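Standup, Tuesday
Yesterday: got the pipeline producing structure tokens again.
Today: sanity-check two examples.
Blockers: none.

Example 1:
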Amino acid sequence: MRSFSRRSLVAVLAAGASRRMGSHKLMKPLKGAKLLDYALDAACSSQADSVCVVTGFSHSHVEAAVSTCRAVPLFNPDWACGQSTSVARAAHYCLREGYHSLVVMLADQPHVDSAVIDRLVQALGSGAADAYRCIAPGYAGSPCGFTRPCFPLLTALEGDEGARQLFKAAPSMGLRTADIGFDDAALFMDIDTPEDLARLNQAKGASC
């Protein structure tokens, strides 16, 4: 029997094609770094035991960026079929490698820092619920956290909705869910368009 000595994994979802940006947004400059660098820094400086980055579109560029930190690249050959396939890929990896918990974060939320991830890691370790999501006024979603009972369900996800499907189905599956609250929804702003990126680059005093 496998010894589950590896407790927590953060999976950074970085497989998308950035269609609304017009080119690969994760390589775009943001206040002296690449957009992807903010997610990598948050994940790699968190309390999680390990970090992986799920790649897909422009795999070689993302993998090169990942090589500068402790994260492991994890290629998703089905990336074009939607975000859920990247979540499923991370869950498969957790099952195979024997992790107790998984935090799923998006690579395009530059204000999400290690403190957000640490709250999820700590909640997952408490055993109070099987799955957690972040909430703020007008917002509910990523990053999310899952314990091992959720992994088989995550591997079966389909489409572009991602782990939101699990939260919808959780009560009927006997899974306990909980929310982790934050005061400001701006913390979870994502970058989808050139306008989003320009606005954040131009913002004075923005902490990314």
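Example 2:
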Amino acid sequence: MPVNRNTIVRLRTIDRCLQRGRQCTLQELNDACYDALNQLGYAEELSLRTTQRDIQLLRSSELGYNAPIVVRDRKYYMYDDPGFSIRNMPLSDRDLQELSSALDIFRHYQGFRALEQQEDLIARLQESINLERNQEQIVWLDTNDRLRGLEHLSTLYDLIQARTPIVISYQSFRQRTPSDIEMSPYVLKEFNNRWFVIGHPTTGKKVLTLALDRISSVRPDTAHPYVPNTFFKAPQYIGQMVGVTREVDSEPRHVVLWVDAETLPYMITKPLHGSQKLGEKGPDGSGKLHLDVIINLELERLLLGFADHLEVLSPRDLRHRVSHHILKAATRYQQFSKAPFHKNR
């Protein structure tokens, strides 16, 4: 039986009513549950039968409560043990397992100041759970503990929320020294284990995307006003592409891929993009995939990862670029034996 938030509220209310030897009629318990839900904004009718089912749920072992609820004089519900409360019960093995998995996921999202403040609490909870269950970590997420730039994540989040213009000290891979970039930040985006901030620069392009691992400092910009985002709608702007790079005025293009029989089932279960649709299938199990997506460097690299399992049929310019990269790589491998650097490794 699935247990939702309303059920939990009702169970805790009944428990509170019956603590310390108190006695309540079914109607009194029903009224208390209705009032508790109403205070939380859930103004719904609550039948006596629902309250009876809640009492049975508390009595049963389904949630591990086994509450000693008895009926006195065929009218009053009470705990046979006056000291009983579901709040005093230890966590079950199932509770510990679910909490441990949640903490593993929770710890993955490092960089936000609120989580940094709770790191000690999270570590102690995780250690206590593992000691009690005598179990090693099960949930492993793809992350990079040495990733730079996460220390700016909370600052940027706060400044975006406050609609504050910023000055970023930024050093691209092509620069020898950092330079200041003034911008109005709008969005934080994670892709391929890297974080990016997207916003409107004071000069230059309409929209600029900067990698957090190339940022050395962030501070409020007191010399320029904040420019509200009238350049793009974030769900469409981000949802139309793979990755983070595009021109703000660019439009998605129709991409058609042929995929071999070995890889097609994988791509069906893990689409390359949210717009992906399966087209015609061949008698050998291969098929065509259709996407409406921004063509950018990230898409090209994604396709190159399946280079020997797919073929770009259209558009022609994307097909040309992908084939150029494949031929360039093939040429480099053909010349492998002729390169002294490789020979001596």
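Quick observation on example 2: The first strand starts at residue 69 and ends at 72. The CA atoms of residues 170 and 215 lie 5 Å apart.
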